[in-house]
Amino acid sequence: MRFRLTPRETSFYDMFAASADNIVTGSKLLMELLGADTPARAEIAERMRAAEHAGDDATHAIFHQLNSSFITPFDREDIYSLASSLDDIMDFMEEAVDLVVLYNVEELPKGVDQQIEVLARAAELTAEAMPHLRTMDNLTEYWIEVNRLENQADQIHRKLLAHLFNGKYDAMDVLKLKQIVDVLEEAADAFEHVANTVETIAVKES
């Protein structure tokens, strides 16, 4: 760890942790969506929308703190990148739930549950990792595992696409379902972006 003579703004750590905890909330709502009927899905979408708004507020708070802080705990561009990637995760999860409701999808294709399970695990790991930004300790396993999960998500996504294009689905249904599984894949990519940013920060601070 580099020795610093000047004090650093430490509230960023708490804000990143809060943002990651909110993502865990979002991932749990995705899990709820799997077994929910149509009326329940609408209610879940409302709660997800509220969580997404909370995520936006957390991101804006980080940006405000960044703009008003003379000394930051690590590079400003990395703070911005980390906050933005965390925000992207919530955006993609909220979009997926919203699409399920808007398209009135009665049954999600087999494999979506695996996508969501991967996202839920990545959310847990991310929330566990954020407090370690204070010391930069015990983070290596985090970014390695999230990258492994993202590779797993890629495989699930490819299998889902093959399933959707096997000729058993109506063309319009294929378009709707593909958009949903693509957005869930983007959420997995965003988790990887967070992990890669954390790795970059840790390397710079070592």
Automatic annotation (TrEMBL):
<dbReference type="Pfam" id="PF01865">
    <property type="entry name" value="PhoU_div"/>
</dbReference>
<protein>
    <submittedName>
        <fullName>DUF47 domain-containing protein</fullName>
    </submittedName>
</protein>
<dbReference type="InterPro" id="IPR052912">
    <property type="entry name" value="UPF0111_domain"/>
</dbReference>
<comment type="similarity">
    <text>Belongs to the UPF0111 family.</text>
</comment>
<dbReference type="InterPro" id="IPR018445">
    <property type="entry name" value="Put_Phosphate_transp_reg"/>
</dbReference>
<dbReference type="InterPro" id="IPR038078">
    <property type="entry name" value="PhoU-like_sf"/>
</dbReference>
